[in-house]
From TrEMBL:
The protein's name: Uncharacterized protein
SUPFAM superfamilies reported for this sequence: F-box domain
InterPro entries: F-box-like_dom_sf (IPR036047)
Amino acid sequence: MRQVHEIRRSILDIDELNNAQLPINALPEEILLEVFSLVEVAPPLSGGENCSRVSTRMAIQAVCRHWRRVLCSNPGSWRTIEVRSRSEWLRICLERCADAPADITLHPRSHTVDTWLILAQHASAIRSMTIRGLDESGRTSVVGLLVDHQWPILQRLKISPVVYSSRAPPPAIRHWVHDREYPLSALSASPKRRINPPTYRPLTIP
């Protein structure tokens, strides 16, 4: 088994040397990153959920080691984060963002306890957040998340509730069936001062 591993490693090393001879890999990293960004924003060749910035980024990483190193070492390439289900993807992107302000979009299947915990850990790096398909229980979690942590650079918060097709929404959230967008200069809070909290910027979630 060890011998097989060494053979595979040798093949990868040879492939890396061959890739290094390609003209595109002779480009400066700044230009290569610009090419990556153009690919990410290009219209998909086919429809479907998989045709997203996430899948494009994963495909770029899979081309060769050099492309993966260049992409993963650039914080700006990870600042636009779209999470459809796996909270682990959110954690990876936020860690690779480093000091770059992050713009996050959360889809319904990503509304988990793990997701809220990761957001709390990286609250100081989040510039905008869009939460789609938020239900009643998720709404409570989001309110607690916003109040209990500091968000020094948060400028935009957009919340879209669950979409009800044939039946009317439950009475508890019947008044809350449209997208809500909250432009913020920043949202600060201090969990240590729960009795006499600081003054918050206007934020209303019906």
